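Problem 12. The chain below contains 96 residues. Write out its predicted structure in token notation.
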Amino acid sequence: MCKKLIFFFFIFSTFISCKNYYNETMDWADNLVVETDMETVRKSQPEFVDIDWQNPIIIDGQEYYEIEIKNNQDILNMQNFLVFENKKYKRRETKK
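Solution.
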């Protein structure tokens, strides 16, 4: 019984110690000003966000950069993108 309780406490403490940055990332992306240049957006990128700036997905002349969120626990497993056109920020998009 004691071992089970210790195991449960360990799992519970590990789970709550992993900060989920999903909401903070969405707040950051949603507060980016439209037409902001790419370099300014890159400099404002939080440390808990990874974006592969070298490999965008290009669709109809727009560049989609996937946002990878550290410790993401999104149960829907959504993909989030920053969309740029002519190196200017346009919007955030979310896809399943």
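Discussion. The first helix runs from residue 2 to 17. Students who got a different answer should revisit the alignment rule from Section 12.3.
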